[in-house]
Amino acid sequence: MTLSCGKEKVVLMNKEFQIMNLLFKSKDEIVSLDKIVANAWNIDEYSTSENVWVFISYLRKKLESIKSKTKIKSIRYQGYYLEYQNDKKTKI
Description:
Shape: globular
Number of strands: 5
Distance between the termini: 7 Å
Order of helices and strands: EEHHHEEE
Radius of gyration: 13 Å
Helix content: 40-55%
Strand content: 15-25%
CATH architecture: Orthogonal Bundle
């Protein structure tokens, strides 16, 4: 499970992959915290909003490390979405 931009690549942990995949699939939509938790954590696992914040932080750093112009943006009390800029495409 990797995230790439141009020739740059970074390995994603399972939860990072699940969150990023959900954000890519939800293009142009705001993904709620509840939807992220339901998608990335199974029923047997305990999760809080802080867990999501941590993984979003990891993903933002990884996007930056591969010099992607795609950014994870947040809207307070609503959720997260991907903001794309015209540059190299980021792929999962």
